[in-house]
Amino acid sequence: MTDVQRKTELRHGAGGRAVHDAGGLDFGPIDRTEHDLALWEKRVDAMLVLLVGPKKGAFKIDAMRRVIEDYGQQQYDATTYYEKWIRAIRNLLIEQEILTKAEIEAKIAEVEQAMQAAGRKVAGGRVPWDTMESPV
Question: For 82-92, what is the mean pLDDT?
Answer without folding.
Answer: 91
